[in-house]
Write a structure and sequence with these properties.
It is globular, with a radius of gyration of 20 Å. 46% of the residues lie in helices and 23% in strands. It has seven helices and ten strands. The strands form two sheets. It has an eight-stranded mixed beta sheet with strand order 1-10-9-4-5-6-2-3, sandwiched between helices. A two-stranded antiparallel sheet has the order 7-8. Strand 7 and strand 8 (166-169) form a beta hairpin.
């Protein structure tokens, strides 16, 4: 009998821990939990310094806020020839969709490099390779050290060094308001869903402005 009760207790504790980690079984992975957390409670973006391709620097939160548009953000490094290129191709699709729908004054794209070796010059050349329209799709690179980690933490990005001087990282599209707050996270491979969330954020802004 004692053994049976002990087994039940262990099971109960295990189920309780699993429920906590998965937010009451609504999230089966840490990535899903991250996205659910953001959707329920949009995260304020830290005011950290980033480097601009044209030279100089800016505060990331000010860059997002002063622009005034809804921003779809992804994280890349220019030496990546796999996942980052796939996201770049989807950003090209998004760039065209933004133009086709006449949203260039309301929605924009921002690619943030987490690679300390990505200089502003690297970003300038990379943006040309990706055929980025600078009025719609901008690039910045992060300052190394504590500020870089703060940005990664804000967005929930995990970057792990990999062989051949590359990185492993979680890839997604992040919809950010001009407040600036991270409001939605969408899988790479679903760029039009990210745009749909951005359009919804635009509509919400218009409703607030009409009140």
């Amino acid at each position: 009998m004692r053994l049976f009760i002990s087994i039940l207790l262990v099971l109960a504790l295990g189920i309780g821990a699993l429920a906590h980690l998965t937010q009451g079984f609504t999230a089966l992975t840490a990535e899903t939990a991250r996205r659910n957390d953001v959707a329920a409670s949009p995260r304020l973006i830290s005011d950290v310094e980033v480097l601009l391709p044209a030279g100089g620097s800016a505060q990331l939160s000010s860059l997002l806020q002063n622009d005034g548009r809804i921003t779809i953000v992804n994280f890349i490094y220019t030496r990546c020839v796999t996942l980052c290129l796939a996201m770049g191709s989807e950003y090209q699709q998004l760039q065209q969709a933004i133009v086709d729908e006449g949203l260039q004054d309301r929605v924009r794209l921002l690619s943030i490099s987490f690679d300390p070796t990505d200089s502003p010059d690297h970003l300038r050349r990379y943006s040309k390779t990706m055929k980025a329209n600078p009025d719609i799709w901008q690039f910045v690179t992060m300052m190394p050290g504590e500020q870089r980690q703060r940005v990664l933490d804000d967005f929930g990005i995990v970057v792990i060094p990999a062989p051949f001087d590359e990185y492993e990282h979680n890839a997604a599209y992040h919809v950010v308001s001009s407040e600036p707050r991270l409001g939605r996270i969408v899988d790479y491979g679903e760029p039009m869903l990210a745009l749909a969330y951005a359009k919804r954020a635009v509509e919400d802004l218009d409703k607030k402005g009409a009140m």
